[in-house]
Amino acid sequence: MSYIIVFVISYLIGSISGAYIIGKIFLNKDIRKYGSGNAGTTNAMRVLGKKAGILTFLIDFLKGVFVAFLINILFSRNYVPLSIFAAVLGHDFPFYMNFKGGKGVATTLGALAFLDLKLTFICYLVWLVSTLITKIVSVGSIGFYIFVIAIFTIYSDLSISNKFIIVMVALLGIWRHKDNIKRLLKGTENKIGGVR
């Protein structure tokens, strides 16, 4: 029963979409109908503007931190990986948005930072360096998820079952970038600034 409660609470908090809320309330725009159609930081930045993009990131990042913190307090650290997975599912597939949300990078980053700040920082650096070198956000995001799998599997003190959950979170993140991967292979993926 505890696992079900953790999953439901985390999913509902995770389903709070920064890009959707900012777009609808302040700009009267449904982010899903513009740009890439993704309710996440990158598309919010392109469609809603830089300030809205930064605010979107902060909302999605902080809800990841909050979910992990809340579940850790109410239950225990052992439940946190499940809460991360459920929160990312909520972000990616929010029920009130016809299950069309974001890709979960900021939420994953925030939640993992609470779980293990040092390991997450390494993964974040991979995202940062990859993005700066290629000027393609999706390359950084995919690199981030790949390193999450490697770093958390090898160096974290989590149980085997919880390591498996973290791997599932990362694989979900990579899968959510499947269209980006197709465009990368075709050489048509947008770079920072909108240049191909």
UniProtKB/TrEMBL annotation:
The compartments listed are: Cell membrane
User: Main site of residence?
Assistant: membrane
- Quote the pathway field: Lipid metabolism; phospholipid metabolism
As for family, the record states:
Belongs to the PlsY family.
Q: What does this protein do?
A: Catalyzes the transfer of an acyl group from acyl-phosphate (acyl-PO(4)) to glycerol-3-phosphate (G3P) to form lysophosphatidic acid (LPA). This enzyme utilizes acyl-phosphate as fatty acyl donor, but not acyl-CoA or acyl-ACP.
- Lineage, please? Bacteria, Bacillati, Bacillota, Tissierellia, Tissierellales
Q: According to its UniProt record, which reaction does this protein catalyse?
A: an acyl phosphate + sn-glycerol 3-phosphate = a 1-acyl-sn-glycero-3-phosphate + phosphate
Source domain of life is Bacteria
E.C. number, please?
2.3.1.275
One example GO MF annotation: glycerol-3-phosphate O-acyltransferase activity
What is the designated name of this protein?
Glycerol-3-phosphate acyltransferase
Give me the segments passing through the membrane: 6-27, 52-73, 109-130, 142-175
